[in-house]
Design a protein that fits this description.
heterodimer; A: alpha/beta; Aspartate Aminotransferase, domain 1; Aspartate Aminotransferase, domain 2; 2 domains; 14 helices; 43% helix; 13% strand; globular; B: alpha+beta; Sufe protein. Chain: A; binds pyridoxal-5'-phosphate; binds FE2/S2 (inorganic) cluster
């Protein structure tokens, strides 16, 4: 395969060479356990501290508010279960949304089975929650509001500032899953009124298996992983030194390039959206047009199915993803597409293309040209399209 | 998740180069079935001669790689067969002819079997005959329903 066009950066990203370089010594000569007493280990501990400080600075937090974890799923689980357990005497009601990642939804499901009550806020056709619905859902026993910063499938950015304000007016904790937003849009936890924030390294060119949960000072939370005294006794387990160093490096690189990169990706994104809308009929954009991650494009192509689209794209070296029932493993289409009101058979034909700063305009052109051809071909074998065309002719 | 790497070479071949895709002007029988499991749809056109031999089979499928490949293989398997022989072709037979399917995709092959049955049922109705061993396919799609309710 000559071409390789990776348009699945929301699934994971390539660990950047600079990050690998920064991590390398910690697999070799700097292998020590930072908790040990000797100088050799102490120096490594200082490196971890510096990394923690750098990351904290990026979101305007302080170093002792950053708790390293194994990634987004653990951070989400910890935020929900940790506060639910810690505040169970205050209340057992949690508010979240129907479009969260499964790390949130399944943790909520577990809490429901353990006697908690969860309200799932609906979203409009663009994937935005309603602040009115949020306010109306608040009860005296509400202990936590968890709304994702930006959606991983359709890229919609939620009104975080307003949610933070509402949460605090009612004395309720506010957690946000920022896995897709971190490094792509500026985040100031103080300014946004965020109490807890989940981040995953592998979405921003750090390796898989590292992430953190920001926990604002003074918040009561139970550990999820009981163990040694690492992370101020809140998260046991020998420190993932290399991962942390890598995450700090990736954060530093992301911070440096953020504005320029976002501008570049946004332009390319809108070019891609424009070409698809102009050149491929019966294509529906999913997600909000402006309140949207700079690198996210998501369409439903009517009358066709997503997996067959992915298989054909793969033949051309193009990597993408779909919310089709046939790719889900569970035979249900994406819960996010259903939540924004796409019927099953339309959700079937969804395609997500997520760009990076390495994506070239040439890649986008090749992708659209290929896509046009693939969609035409799949439609020519679709009974739905056949019926649609016949109906249309009969009607005309 | 289903990945290209999980499909056999034969499945990929029948997906990339499907045999007998298309429509038929004057079919002897046509059947459309939907998969309750994931919402896929398959339509089968049959051309059957006076001796009850299937001369031609054409299909259209709205579904995954496995659904397309099983449709393609099913049409290949029934061509030249008598109605009775065609009824013997089960979804397992189609899956085996494709060197197997990933477990999670086995249900897709049911669609091909049911599409054949639906087309034969239509043929029997048009000719006012009954075909021994053929019962009305359960999930024949009512073509006037939900699939036309999509917005432009
Ligand atoms: C919004 C969101 N939350 C959580 C996760 C899970 O992160 P991780 O893969 O680090 O567990 C992901 C990534 O798949 C995500 O996109
Ligand atoms: S047709 Fe949906 S999984 Fe095969």
């Amino acid at each position: 395969m000559d071409r390789f066009i990776y348009l699945d950066n929301a699934a994971t990203t390539k660990t950047s060479p600079e990050v690998i370089e920064a991590m390398r010594p910690y697999f070799g000569e700097l292998f020590g356990n930072p908790a040990s007493a000797y100088t050799f280990a102490g120096n490594i501990n200082s490196d971890v501290d510096r990394a923690r400080k750098a990351i904290a600075g990026f979101i305007n937090a302080s170093a002792d508010e950053i708790y390293f974890t194994s990634g987004g799923s653990e951070s989400d689980n910890w935020a929900l279960k940790g506060t639910a357990f810690a505040l169970k005497n205050k209340g057992k009601h949690i508010i979240t949304t129907v479009i969260e990642h499964h790390a949130i939804l399944n943790a909520c499901n577990y809490l429901e089975r353990s006697g908690y009550d969860v309200t799932y806020l609906s979203v409009d056709e663009n994937g935005l929650i309603s602040l009115e619905e949020l306010k109306a859902a608040i009860r005296p026993d509400t202990i936590l509001i968890s709304v994702m910063f930006a959606n991983n499938e359709i890229g919609t950015i939620e009104p975080i500032t307003e949610i933070g304000r509402i949460a605090h007016e009612h004395g309720i904790l506010f957690h946000t899953d920022a896995v897709q937003a971190y490094g792509h849009i500026p985040i100031d936890v103080k300014h946004l009124g965020i109490d807890m924030l989940s981040v995953s390294g592998h979405k921003i060119n750090a390796p898989k298996g590292i992430g953190f949960l920001y926990i604002r000072k003074g918040i009561k939370i139970e550990p999820l992983i009981h163990g040694g005294s690492q992370e101020r006794g809140k998260r046991g387990g020998t420190t993932n030194v290399a991962g942390i160093i890598g995450l700090a490096k990736a954060t530093e690189l992301a911070a440096e390039s953020l504005d320029k990169r976002a501008e570049y990706e946004r332009e390319l994104r809108d070019y891609l959206i424009g070409r698809i809308e102009n050149e491929i009929p019966y294509a529906l954009l999913n997600g909000d047009r402006s309140k949207r991650l700079p690198n996210n494009v998501n369409f439903c192509f009517r009358f066709i199915e997503g997996e067959s689209m992915l298989l054909l794209l793969d033949q051309y070296g193009i990597c993408a993803s779909s919310g089709s029932a046939c790719t889900s493993g569970s035979l249900d289409p994406s819960h996010v597409l259903l939540a924004i009101g796409r019927p099953h058979e339309i959700a079937h034909g969804s395609l997500r293309l997520t760009l990076s700063e390495e994506t070239r305009k040439d890649d986008i052109d090749f992708t659209v040209d290929t896509l046009k051809h693939i969609i035409e071909r799949l439609r020519s074998m679709s009974p739905l399209y056949e019926d649609f065309i016949k109906e249309k002719r009969a009607g005309a | 998740m289903s990945q290209t790497t999980e499909y056999s070479k034969k499945v990929l071949d029948h997906f990339m180069n499907p045999r007998n895709v298309g429509e038929m002007e004057d079919p002897s029988g046509v059947g459309t079935v939907g998969n309750a499991k994931c919402g896929d749809i398959m339509r089968m056109y049959l051309d059957i001669d006076e001796d009850g031999v299937i001369r031609e089979a054409k299909f259209k499928t709205f579904g995954c790689g496995a659904a397309v490949a099983t449709s393609s293989m099913a049409t290949e398997l029934i061509k030249g067969k008598t109605i009775k022989e065609a009824l013997q072709i089960t979804n397992q037979a189609v899956a085996e002819a494709l060197d197997g399917l990933p477990k999670i995709k086995l249900h897709c092959s049911l669609l091909a079997e049911q599409a054949i049955h639906a087309a034969l049922w239509d043929y029997a109705e048009r000719h006012g005959i009954t075909i021994e061993g053929l019962t009305k396919p359960v999930n024949d799609i009512d073509e006037t329903e939900e699939f036309y309710q999509m917005e432009e």
